[in-house]
Design goal:
Layout (H helix, E strand, L loop, with lengths): L1 E4 L2 E6 L2 E6 L5 H16 L5 E6 L4 E4 L16 E3 L6 E4 L3 E7 L9 H17 L6 E3 L2 E7 L1 H4 L4 E12 L2 E9 L20 E3 L11 H16 L5
Parallel strand pairs: 3-4, 5-6, 11-13
Antiparallel strand pairs: 1-2, 2-3, 4-8, 5-7, 8-12, 9-10, 10-11, 11-12
Helix pairs in contact: 2-4
């Protein structure tokens, strides 16, 4: 069943709700909506949700963020995110996926949840013939660039930051589709200052796809990794 809203599509499938917003969503509004939905999931009044959206250009600070990593504090608004992790950028051309799942019904395993988020993005990227990889000690999804940028060079294509409240998850994944990569220069992204590790996107890799195509890949890959809402 599909339920149309102004600028928003909500798709219900097998107990899991997919919400896709066309217009950029202000960050405070997204936080408030996540809080409301998580409370409803915990109370048994709402389905699990994956929310796909874009934000206006902004920086978010996780619970481990360091003030020194905010290189250009006046460049974009900075928001305290409440999630784990450090500083990251959100903006147009980046597909943000907020994942609200009930881990009480999925095994009470936060580490597995984070690993599954990485597996989800890796599986979605594979649909565009992009080889995303995990790296020990660096949460997220990485692309080996040693072939075109020199030995040891790796670029992050997707950042992950989560929070769990009463075993229901908030926040999630930011996948770079075609953002302005210069906007990442205003922070030490995710606290990683090593010059060998940069940031990339599908467009930067020569993969030019629309957000709708990315959403289709994310939905298909999600079913493979997470399945539907458990009974």
């Amino acid at each position: 069943m599909a339920q149309a809203q102004v600028g928003t599509a909500t798709l219900l499938s097998k107990g899991l709700e997919w919400r896709i917003d066309d217009a950029p969503v202000p960050y405070p509004a997204a936080l408030a909506a996540m809080d409301e939905r998580v409370a409803a999931i915990r109370a048994g009044r709402a389905r699990e949700r994956v929310w796909l959206l874009e934000h206006p250009p902004l920086y978010t600070a996780g619970t481990s963020a360091k003030a020194a990593d905010l290189v250009a504090p006046s460049r974009f608004p900075v928001f305290a995110a409440g999630r784990g992790g450090q500083l990251t950028y959100h903006g147009p051309g980046q597909r943000v996926a907020y994942v609200m799942l009930d881990l009480a019904r999925r095994g009470y395993d936060v580490r597995r949840f984070v690993s599954d988020l990485e597996a989800w993005i890796i599986a979605a990227l594979a649909r565009f013939n992009v080889n995303g990889e995990r790296r020990a000690g660096r949460v997220g999804v990485w692309i080996d660039r040693s072939g075109d940028k020199g030995a040891g060079r790796e670029d992050k294509i997707a950042a992950i930051g989560v929070r769990v409240r009463h075993w229901v998850t908030l926040h999630g994944v930011a996948l770079n589709v075609d953002p302005d990569l210069r906007h990442f220069d205003g922070i030490v992204s995710c606290g990683i200052a090593d010059a060998r590790f940069g940031t990339t996107s599908l467009a930067d890799l020569g993969i030019h796809v629309g957000m709708a195509e990315v959403d289709m890949a994310l939905k298909a890959a999600f079913a493979e990794v997470f399945g539907a809402q458990p009974d």
